[in-house]
Specification:
This protein has 180 residues and is an alpha/beta fold. The termini are far apart. One of its GO terms (biological process) is protein processing. It holds the Pfam family HycI.
Length: 180
């Protein structure tokens, strides 16, 4: 089975880039092994529509992104099946070129949506132009997001080995250095 972990978000808008930074944090800190499955981590940025071929080529998709939810606060983490999205979840109002929700809906209408699609979402605090930093609420959410993702991959049969211990500030710094 081909499993895709997709980080979505605009890294130039503070917490909006958390999905991208999260998958970079996980992929740089852990090795995953499975004799049954392939695993890919992809920085999807804001180009949701352009990701359709990657999504279509996957059997199992986990989208890491910012979401809105009724009665929530910044830093709250949600993990749900796309086909059973809680009514309280709003997946809109971000700085993406095309919303990830619309991309998944287009994949579904085209018949290329993976068999299993899950969303690992966090409620952002700060979405502001030209901010490469994350709020304390977003940083604190990373531990919960990491536990949820590692548990899910473990249930799918992956073994996990920690290879490094970068924190999110180090990941952000490495990302900015690579940018310039």
């Amino acid at each position: 089975m081909k499993i895709l972990i997709l980080g979505i978000g605009n890294v130039m808008f503070g917490d909006e880039g958390l999905g991208v930074h999260f998958i970079n944090l996980i992929s740089q800190n852990f090795n995953f092994k499975s004799s049954l499955h392939e695993l890919s981590f992809i920085d999807g940025g804001t180009m949701a529509n352009a990701l359709t071929p990657l999504i279509a080529n996957s059997d199992y998709l986990i989208v890491c992104d910012c979401i809105e939810a009724d009665d929530s606060k910044a830093g709250d983490v949600y993990f749900f099946d796309y086909n059973a999205m809680p009514k309280s979840i709003k997946w809109s109002g971000s700085a993406h070129e095309v919303e990830m929700l619309q991309t998944l809906q287009m994949c579904e209408l085209s018949g290329v949506l993976p068999k299993s699609v899950k969303v690992l979402g966090v409620v952002p605090k700060r979405i502001e132009p030209m901010s490469f930093s994350l709020s304390s609420q977003a940083k604190n959410a990373l531990k919960t997001m990491q536990k949820v993702l590692l548990d899910e991959l473990g249930q799918l049969g992956f073994s996990c080995e920690q290879k490094a211990n970068f924190n999110i500030d180090e990941i952000l710094s490495k990302w900015l250095k690579a940018l310039y």
